[in-house]
């Protein structure tokens, strides 16, 4: 029976060299006190509403509240560039995903915007590895983890008898996948410490998947 494997992107396959507040400050140097918090509030609300432009919503909230000498579109462009520059995929992780993809139908299943997530995949050569890319705020998906609807969309993109998900966030990734009837591997540190889904790394998850 065919088993398809999906990986979460941010903080699972892909890591960051800087925190998000530092990335924000690169897009808006010398930001007023409270600007980052205002940005995050607007961003997350837009994400939850499945907006295709949540970064713009975040920066519109900042420009509307503070005296900032920049347009939201310019700030979004700067932020995208700064976030992309702060991403990295460890060689061992890249190799692990590539090994899985050589033997199983393999996809990326991630919350985020299609434009930003595709740019990250392309920057690290993962777009050529993945057979499918399922992104929450893509209008053709319009569902965010842990909603089972995003897992159903993934199943439609890669038909298989069984599905496995590898993610770092217990409630969104692991509980969401299990509720959708998938097997799951948890590479994060949240959730129950003795959970049977927990593994030390993507590489360990890949080894168990392929054994």
Automatic annotation (TrEMBL):
One annotated GO molecular function: hydrolase activity
Tell me which SUPFAM superfamilies the record gives: HAD-like (SSF56784)
Which is a GO BP term held by this UniProt record? small molecule metabolic process
List keywords of the entry alphabetically.
Hydrolase, Magnesium
Instruction: Give the matching InterPro entries.
Output: HAD-like_hydrolase, HAD-like_sf, HAD-SF_hydro_IA, HAD_sf, PGP-like_dom2
- UniProt cofactor(s): Mg(2+)
PANTHER family assigned: N-ACYLNEURAMINATE-9-PHOSPHATASE
Q: Which family does it belong to?
A: Belongs to the HAD-like hydrolase superfamily.
Mind telling me what this protein is named? Answer: Putative hydrolase of the HAD superfamily
Task: Look up and give the organism this protein is from.
Answer: Haloferax larsenii
């Amino acid at each position: 029976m065919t088993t398809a494997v999906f990986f979460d992107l941010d903080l699972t396959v892909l890591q960051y060299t800087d925190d998000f507040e530092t990335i924000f400050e690169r897009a808006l140097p010398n930001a007023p006190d409270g600007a980052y918090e205002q940005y995050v509030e607007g961003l997350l609300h837009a994400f939850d509403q499945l907006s295709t432009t949540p970064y713009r919503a975040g920066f519109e909230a900042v420009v509307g509240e503070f005296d900032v000498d920049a347009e939201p579109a310019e700030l979004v462009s700067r932020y995208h560039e700064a976030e992309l520059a702060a991403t990295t995929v460890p060689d061992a992780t890249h190799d692990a995903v590539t090994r899985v993809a050589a033997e199983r139908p393999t996809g990326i299943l991630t919350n985020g915007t299609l434009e930003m997530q595709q740019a990250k995949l392309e920057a690290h050569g993962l777009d050529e590895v993945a057979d499918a890319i399922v992104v929450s705020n893509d209008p053709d998906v319009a569902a965010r983890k842990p909603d089972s609807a995003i897992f159903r969309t993934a199943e439609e993109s890669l038909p298989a008898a069984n599905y496995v998900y590898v993610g770092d966030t217990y409630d969104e990734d692991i509980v969401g996948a299990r509720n959708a009837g998938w097997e799951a591997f948890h590479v994060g540190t949240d959730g129950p410490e003795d959970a049977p889904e927990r593994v030390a790394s993507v590489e360990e998850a890949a080894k168990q998947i392929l054994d």
